[in-house]
Amino acid sequence: MVRFSLCLFFLLLLLSAGEISSQLGSGPRILDLKTLIPPKMKNPVGFKWSWDHHDSHRACVKSIASYSGRKETAFYATDIQTRIMICCTVFFGIFSRIKLDLNGLSMLRVRAFDNEENEFRSLVGLQLIWKLMPGSGGSTQHLAHVPLKESPLTDCGGFCAHLDIQKKLEDGGVFSDLFVVKGTGIGHEKVSVHLLDAPLTHITDEIVVAVAEVMSLELFSAVYVLVGASFGYTLNVIRGNVPQAVHLPSLHHRWSVLNSSVAQVGSLIDLTKALSLWKTTVILEDTRVAGHFQTPSINVVTPDTFILQSSTWSFPILTR
């Protein structure tokens, strides 16, 4: 028999009598009818459900038994006013592999799967080892770890879920399934992670993270020009959250065009000239980071009409 503890068993639905009658058609529901979590290893792993209605009521299931193989139990919750009962099956299993995901350029999270490719819903409580290694055999670090307690994740407005457990693990000298990093230099960094809990220390995964400057182009949206027209782009990068213009030509930025019969562009400068009717794409690449592009489009067209406009010029009057 699998033992489990419930932090809160009932989901309380605070509905008025009129609201109850209108809700009977649908009633309370659990979106995740089947949940997979690991058994207890060194630390128990918990998973929370929450009911986002009036007060935030939560239920927490936590693995407290160690075993091999696959076990299951059921989790029930009853609406104390409508007496509607909902059920979720909880499976306890062992990892067969883990996968490292990159959320944005700052937060890394581990996902785990069993031998049937079912994904575990929670890894909170597991101890993991993270490593940062410069990519391409270099020696310069491009990423640095940011402690969870110093990261923006702590500003969660009281809805931090298991973040307190994850921060406690970091304070103890190990890491959780969540790892926050910041860029310290332009380039590539290899990030690896493996489980510290026996007997799963052989399970590991790694990814390569690209650290790059955010590029933006004026005239990024589709440009419509005539044959023979020449025009230029303005390149800005974000440094310290402040946009800064890049002086062109730049040795770190290479310009090219997808269809050279439609337009041409210098490899180091932004000057573009339309050659023939059709459409193409200008490619701006940061040569320090492979795969970091900006791709504005160009449409070389023949106009249907011309519109003549007049405007009034005003001149300042100088007086003594």
UniProtKB/TrEMBL annotation:
Keywords: Signal. Residues 1-22 form the signal peptide. InterPro entries: Ig_NUP210_2nd, NUP210-like. The keyword Signal applies. It comes from the Eukaryota. The keyword Glycoprotein does not apply. Residues 107-204 form the NUP210 Ig-like domain. PANTHER family: NUCLEAR PORE MEMBRANE GLYCOPROTEIN 210, NUCLEAR PORE MEMBRANE GLYCOPROTEIN GP210-RELATED. This is NUP210 Ig-like domain-containing protein.
